[in-house]
Design brief:
4-stranded antiparallel sheet; 5-stranded mixed sheet; alpha+beta
C-alpha cells in the first residue's frame, strides 16, 4: 500500500508504527529501521513543541531545561543535535530567571557551558560538533576562563583539521596568548603568540564553501606579531609587521610614530672663536642630510626683520651658498630622536655669521650660526635698556655698533662708550639687540 499510493496512508503515529512493524515482519530491516528512526524524531518533535508552548507562556528557560532532559532519552540524530545546539545558544542569550541556585538576572554563562560540554561529548560524530566546539571556546572566554578556553581552542584545532572556524580559533588563541605575553614578556611567551599567529599570516583557510582564501583575521594577526616585536624592542621587525597590518587603526598610528622623520636645528647658535664652529642637529629616522651655508650681514638682516625671532628664516632665492656638504648619520635601532654636532666647514679662525640650511628628503631646517668673542648683557632700567658689550677677557668694548629693536621697529642705534655701554630709551617690554665690532657679531634679548 505504501508503494502504490502513499498519499492515502493516514499520518498518525499509530499507523506509522504499524507500517514500520510490517516492514520488519517481512524482513525489510533497513526500511523498518529508517521508519522507526522517523518515529523517534517525530516523538522528539513533540518535546520541541512543548518548548515553544512554554516560551509562549514566558517560561522559555523551563522549556530549555525540559529539552535537556528529553535529549538524554532520544538517540543521536541531526534533529536532536540541532536542538541541543540551539538550546545552548539560547541559554547564552537569556538572563537567568528568579528561583534558581545561581544569581538571578545575570547572563547564564554556567548553563551555556554545561549545555555545550554535554553537546560536544554526546554529539561528537555529527556535523554540529564543529561549530559547537568553537562555541565552547567562546563561551569559556566569555565566562572569564581564558586558560580553559585556550586549552579548548588547542583541542579544537587538533580535532577539526578542516573546520571553517579554524582561523577564528587560531586568532582567539593568538590573542589569548598575547595577553599572557603582555603580563610577562619573555622569549618563551612571545614564541607561543607567534605559534598561533603565524598560520593566520602564512596559510589560506576554507571559507563558507570549499574555496581557500586568506583569513579576515590576517591583518589583526600581523598586528599582534608587530606588538610582540615592539614590546621586545625589535623595532625593525615591528615596523615590517605594522606595515602588513595597515588596515588596523592602532597599527597605522604605531607605524607612523616609529617611522616619522624629523629634522631640527636650533634657531640661533653662538660659538666662541676658540672653539670649533659646530652646531647641533636633532634628527629621527634620517640617514643623509645635505647642508648649505650662506654668509650673513647680521646688522642688515636685523634692520630688515627688526626682531631676533625667526632670523634663520630668510629668502635665499638666487643666492649661491658659500659651503655645501653632506653628512651621513648613523642608523639607530630605537628609531628615536638623536642629537649630533655638525661642523661648519669654515676656513681659519675668523669671526662671522652664517645661515645654515639642512635638507633631508622633504624635511628642511635652518639655523643662524654666530662665531664671535663678543658678549652682550642687557640691563632694564625703567623704560630704557642699557647694553653692556665685553670681550672674552671681560674687558669693555668701546665703539661697538649697537642696534636695538622692540620687535617691531628699530628704537635706537649707536656706539658703545669707553665702558662698553650703550643706552636705548623707550624700548618697551621685549628688547632685541645686535652688536657688531669689525667682523664680530653678538646678539642679546
Amino acid at each position: 500500500l505504501v508503494r502504490r499510493n502513499p498519499r492515502r496512508i493516514p499520518g498518525d503515529l499509530d499507523t506509522a508504527r504499524a507500517i514500520a512493524f510490517a516492514y520488519e515482519g517481512v524482513g525489510e530491516a533497513e526500511v523498518a529501521n529508517g521508519l522507526f528512526r522517523d518515529l523517534v524524531a517525530r516523538g522528539f518533535g513533540l518535546q520541541t513543541d512543548w518548548l515553544q508552548a512554554l516560551t509562549g507562556r514566558g517560561r522559555e528557560v523551563d522549556g530549555l531545561d525540559h529539552v535537556g532532559e528529553a535529549l538524554k532519552r532520544f538517540p543521536i540524530s541531526n534533529a536532536t543535535a540541532q536542538a541541543a545546539f540551539q538550546r545552548a545558544r539560547r541559554y547564552r542569550e537569556l538572563p537567568r530567571p528568579e528561583g534558581r541556585t545561581r544569581k538571578a538576572r545575570r547572563p547564564m554563562d554556567e548553563e551555556t557551558l554545561d549545555a555545550l560540554w554535554s553537546l560536544t561529548a554526546h554529539f561528537a560524530g555529527t556535523t554540529i560538533a564543529d561549530p559547537a566546539g568553537y562555541a565552547l571556546v567562546e563561551a569559556m572566554s566569555r565566562a572569564g576562563d581564558l586558560d580553559g578556553a585556550a586549552t579548548a581552542a588547542e583541542a579544537f584545532l587538533r580535532r577539526f583539521a578542516d573546520s571553517r572556524y579554524r582561523d577564528d580559533t587560531w586568532y582567539f588563541l593568538a590573542d589569548t596568548r598575547f595577553r599572557r605575553f603582555e603580563e610577562k614578556p619573555t622569549g618563551e611567551s612571545a614564541a607561543l603568540v607567534r605559534e598561533a599567529a603565524d598560520p593566520l599570516v602564512k596559510q589560506k583557510f576554507r571559507a563558507s564553501g570549499r574555496q581557500m582564501t586568506w583569513s579576515p583575521f590576517r591583518a589583526r594577526a600581523y598586528h599582534l606579531l608587530a606588538r610582540v616585536h615592539h614590546v621586545l624592542g625589535e623595532l625593525d621587525q615591528a615596523i615590517r609587521m605594522y606595515r602588513e597590518a595597515r588596515s588596523v587603526e592602532d597599527a597605522r598610528e604605531a607605524l607612523a610614530f616609529l617611522t616619522e622623520e624629523r629634522l631640527r636645528l636650533e634657531e640661533t647658535v653662538m660659538r666662541p672663536l676658540a672653539a670649533d664652529t659646530t652646531f647641533p642637529i636633532r634628527y629621527r629616522n634620517v640617514r643623509t642630510v645635505a647642508f648649505k651655508a650662506y654668509p650673513v650681514d647680521l646688522q642688515v638682516l636685523f634692520a630688515v626683520r627688526k626682531t631676533l625671532e625667526g632670523l634663520h628664516k630668510i629668502d635665499l632665492s638666487g643666492i649661491v651658498p658659500q659651503h655645501e656638504w653632506t653628512v651621513e648619520l648613523p642608523k639607530h635601532a630605537d628609531h628615536g630622536e638623536h642629537t649630533r654636532d655638525v661642523r661648519l666647514p669654515v676656513k681659519g679662525a675668523g669671526a662671522g655669521v652664517w645661515l645654515v640650511v639642512a635638507k633631508a628628503g622633504k624635511h628642511e631646517a635652518s639655523s643662524l650660526v654666530l662665531r664671535s668673542d663678543l658678549k652682550v648683557v642687557l640691563q632694564r632700567v625703567g623704560g630704557k635698556v642699557r647694553v653692556y658689550v665685553t670681550d672674552p677677557r671681560g674687558m669693555p668694548v668701546r665703539g661697538g655698533y649697537v642696534t636695538v629693536s622692540d620687535g617691531k621697529t628699530i628704537r635706537a642705534r649707536g656706539l658703545t662708550d669707553g665702558r662698553g655701554v650703550f643706552e636705548a630709551p623707550g624700548v618697551g617690554a621685549t628688547p632685541f639687540v645686535v652688536v657688531s665690532s669689525g667682523d664680530r657679531y653678538a646678539i642679546g634679548r
